[in-house]
Amino acid sequence: MADPEIKSYEPFHESHSAAVTESRPARAVLMAIVFVFLVVFLLLPLIIVFKEALAKGVGTYLESLSDADTRSAIRLTLLVAAISVPLNIIFGISAAWAIAKFEFKGKAFLTTLIDLPFSVSPVISGLVYVLLFGAQGLLGAWLKTHGIVILFAVPGIVLATVFVTFPFVARELIPLMQEQGNGDEEAALSLGANGWQTFWYVTLPNVKWGLLYGVLLCNARAMGEFGAVSVVSGHIRGLTNTMPLHVEILYNEYNAVGAFAVASLLAGLALVTLVLKTLLEMRYGAELAATRGH
Amino acid sequence: MEVRVANVRKEFERFPALHDVSLDIKSGELIALLGPSGSGKTTLLRLIAGLERPTRGKIFFGDEDASQKSIQERNVGFVFQHYALFRHMTVADNIGFGLKVRHGPTRPPAAEIRRRASELIDLVQLSGLEKRYPAQLSGGQRQRVALARAMAIEPKVLLLDEPFGALDAQVRRELRRWLREIHDRTGHTTVFVTHDQEEALELADRVVVMSQGRIEQVGTADDIYDTPNSPFVYGFIGESSSLPVKVENGEIWLADRPIGLQAPHASEGDATLYFRPHDVELLDGCSGCIAGTVVASRRVAGTRRVELEIGGERQRVEIELPVDHPAAQKSRVAFRPGRWKLFPPA
């Protein structure tokens, strides 16, 4: 059978009509403002981080990175990310599934609640845990009698990080899943797939790029979080210092090279994240477009 | 497989979408659920599929009560209006999906799944497109993949939700004929939803006309078209004209004149007369007829449609005339409906 309506799937390029294009000087001024702003506020500080880190040569740079406390800070940061990112994936997928795929009372409230960590100062996020788990806190006495240490230890840092990062995955997935609707899942069920097969073969592949994007942002934040972690960590060198906290300590000790060396690692992470994000957007722009609505 | 819908009621958040609907579908039959949007036709289809559970009533597959079975257990093939193809799978993988997700001994080996898929691809005439992804297919091709995918699980019943709704007119007509052929060849009991009466009347063995959550009429295309059993069916299927009339002593009166139609069994008093604009007998003289003044005349394909203003009440009705009929030019036209029906006053 001939099918006369095969469409071409060329991406649609938006052209700028002459009517809405600014005059040449106006364009130059606008672009200059943006450019100067970016250089002064973003590029220059980034360059300074690397310049300071390498101020006394590569040898000193590597030496300060191999310092025991620094290495333990790096390890802790990786550990915290390794725990909080998977937790966020599970939470994010569950929340997005619940919000996008079925109706229930309090849905609007849940959606708002997910955004809470974005609107609350990270310091408050940390303080909440102090009030909850601290010696004078709500659960402090109970925890103490059972010998569970949360505050000023790794569990507290993980909790604070999870709290601060939990909107990332969920917010990427919710608009994507809402846009895709239930059709594919209904089709899979009607073909005999069970719930798990439907999730694994249909839902997850449909959102995988959005999910990866969310994980990337979540990871960057988990490794870089300062405020909330600072409140609950207790700043014990070699034990409860993450990389951002360690940068501060080194800097306060006038160890500029050490501070900037660790900072350069964080900056490097940011750059890698940026590159990966850009690559993802280039490759899967259309799929991600739905998630960029916020 | 016979399907029996017995006194099914469905409410969404207390809002009734279906009121006490019953329907018997014979094995191997091709049935259309036809109605305007909001009539409950898609809800009924989804209830049969198991995508929704009835608030009251039961659904039987053969002698078996399927009401409490999940959609997986019911083994139905469902084709969605917007295809719902898995976008990250090729055509062949889409079609094989239903076999791949089976468990234990019922799951065929991979080679068998591939063979089944390629058989179905031949059946829906998409050979050569096995490796394509849904985004690389046209709308008509996607819908055929969706049908092949639904048939791959050897369903007891095939259910199609506005299968051609998203396609343009020419492809629709082609697919319609093709679906009829496939149905005749495979013999699946098939139910499809449509709001397109032409599609329903042309394609289905029997048509179920629905309105506001109720079944108005069930019958063949001839039944539905020639003897509509309600003003709704008259108005919804084909063209219709209506006039307020009175029944006195078994005769129908329009205002103060009898119009030459006998209705010995109708109840006395006010009523509404329904007839088809094309099913009228034109008269020269008028003793017992409906007479009116032509106020508008339109050419519609092979006929001419004229609008008449009738009597002192200035009721307007439409009738059809042959294009070259002299009455079309006359200012006064007299006629009598051929096939007609009386319903209580609107």
Word description of this protein:
The complex is a heterodimer of chains A (294) and B (346). With 294 residues, chain A is mostly helical. Chain A has 2 domains: 1-53, no CATH class; 58-292, MetI-like fold, CATH 1.10.3720. Chain A has 14 helices and no strands. Chain A starts with 23 loop residues before the first helix and ends in a 5-residue tail after the last helix. By secondary structure, chain B is of the alpha+beta class. In chain B, strands 6-7-8-3-9-10 form a 6-stranded mixed β-sheet, sandwiched between helices. A 5-stranded antiparallel β-sheet of chain B has the order 13-12-11-14-20. In chain B, strand 12 and strand 13 form a beta hairpin. The chains are: A mainly alpha (294), B alpha+beta (346). The A-B interface holds A 1, 3-7, 9, 183-184, 186-194, 197, 201-202, 205-206 and B 49, 51, 70-72, 75-78, 80, 82, 84-88, 97-98, 101-102, 125, 135-141, 146, 149-150, 152-153, 167-168, 170-171, 174, 178.
Map the helices and strands.
The complex is a heterodimer of chains A (294) and B (346).
Chain A: H1 24-53, H2 57-65, H3 68-101, H4 107-114, H5 116-119, H6 122-133, H7 140-145, H8 154-165, H9 167-180, H10 183-190, H11 195-224, H12 227-233, H13 243-252, H14 256-289
Chain B: E1 3-12, E2 15-25, E3 30-34, H1 41-49, E4 56-61, E5 64-65, H2 71-74, E6 76-79, H3 91-100, H4 110-123, H5 139-152, E7 157-161, H6 169-186, E8 189-194, H7 197-203, E9 206-211, E10 214-219, H8 221-226, H9 231-236, E11 241-248, E12 251-254, E13 257-262, E14 269-275, E15 280-283, E16 290-300, E17 303-310, E18 315-322, E19 332-337, E20 340-343
Helix pairs in contact in B: 3-4, 3-5, 4-5
Observed structural traits:
heterodimer; A: 294 residues; mainly alpha; MetI-like fold; 2 domains; disordered C terminus; B: 346 residues; alpha+beta; six-stranded mixed beta sheet; five-stranded antiparallel beta sheet; 9 helices; 20 strands; 25% helix; elongated
